[in-house]
Amino acid sequence: MKFTEEHEWLRPEDDVIVVGITEHAAEQLGDIVFVELPEVGTEVSKDDECVVIESVKAASDILAPIDGEIVEVNEVLIDNPAKVNDDPMGDAWFFKIKPADASQLDDYMSEAEYKDMIS
Amino acid sequence: MTALLQTPLHALHLELGARMVAFAGYEMPVQYPAGVMKEHLHTREAAGLFDVSHMGQVILRGESCEAVALALEALVPVDVAGLKPGRQRYGFFTNDAGGLRDDLMFANRGDHLFLVVNAACKQDDLAHLVAHLKDVTIEPVTDRALLALQGPEAEAVLSALAPEVAAMKFMDVITTTILGAEAWVSRSGYTGEDGFEISVPEARAEALARALLEDDRVLPIGLGARDSLRLEAGLCLYGHDIDTATSPVEAALTWAIQKVRRSDGARAGGFPGAERILSEIHNGAERRRVGLRPEGRAPMREGTPLYAGETGGDPVGEVTSGAFGPTLGAPMSMGYLPSELAASGTKVWGEVRGKRLPATVADLPFVPARFKR
């Protein structure tokens, strides 16, 4: 598993990467009330805004961590955005992306490095 | 950068694990570990304790309470002189353009008037009072904390410490003793729930707060939930829903301008902006503050432009407050629309992240009030 400075986690699964936000990020954001997911099939470039998360008071963006194609989104979050607070590292993944260039993952942190960053 | 001010409960907030933010020059708790959603829901189910010590408390004294009231009427378009002792009322300072300088609560406490004004406006409000009230002593109260206890259990909780509060009706004010401290209590608040606002000497604030928090029914509540609660209750936030450019008629606050101050009243006019305000009461205003219910789940936040149609045209209004309502279970906003689009049920479009999304004009409050009348 890899971690970004924007508090996203990336988990390779077969030929796609599953993307979510960390427990730390979910806690900082507070109670999530709305998630806007990208459309399946969208081509994204690294750092494109691709998910909007709204808490009671404010909106935040999640940026695409790598270039690629969105192949699946987690529809559960549409009706149950609070899942992001309940299980950010598991059931509340946001999208699965087919990487254009898997080596882009090398830029990111290991779990140990991420834990270091947030402490 | 000037250092932020702290309230008498600052150490307690930190001890309770509050996340602190800068607000109106003060360091204030925006939430505690429970989080905004839980704090909001808890307030409507049981009792929430708020530190609102940042707000301005002011005493006005003069020859008589009536004389002071009449003097204040030159600055606020409301019936101050007719307010009976032991009662509180909502009002606002107007400016020459008929806009609003601040909104406030004022109370007749027998031999003086007691005002509570917004934190961000208190210096300006004091200067305004000093500049215009002749033969009135204006005393800023700087040595007292202000706490709010709100929710259906507030009476049960507070009356355990001060039994006399149980007999209070909405907008009553009394002076009583709580834990040995002189407390000025009003039955009022900013959440739409029953509750009390309590002014105590600053040295006694922490002990009172701790005693209230000892009760299982009470949780500490931050400014985050304070905002979602007041928005569900349809209450204005000065600087957002009302400001120097909005008249009280546009802001749908005409109800607060009693008949005696209107054109046919015994003390008609005589306040800044009277010409415009009285004219708008008579003829209607061009725009109006309304409630809005976005159709989807996406909130429409402050600044969202509003359109009359799904495509084309210029914005006709904008959102002035918007959030997700935890009790409502949906997003909710307040904003201004032209009067002809202000009827409940009117469909408008808000531009969110470049897309126009539908919203419906809705009656306020979003969540019914539960005052002890």
Automatic annotation (TrEMBL), chain A:
GO terms for cellular component: cytosol; glycine cleavage complex. This is Glycine cleavage system H protein. Its cofactor is (R)-lipoate. The modification N6-lipoyllysine is found at K57. It comes from Pseudooceanicola nanhaiensis. Belongs to the GcvH family. InterPro entries: 2-oxoA_DH_lipoyl-BS (IPR003016), Biotin_lipoyl (IPR000089), GCV_H (IPR002930), GCV_H/Fam206 (IPR033753), GCV_H_sub (IPR017453), Single_hybrid_motif (IPR011053). One of its GO terms (biological process) is glycine decarboxylation via glycine cleavage system. Keywords: Lipoyl. Binds 1 lipoyl cofactor covalently.
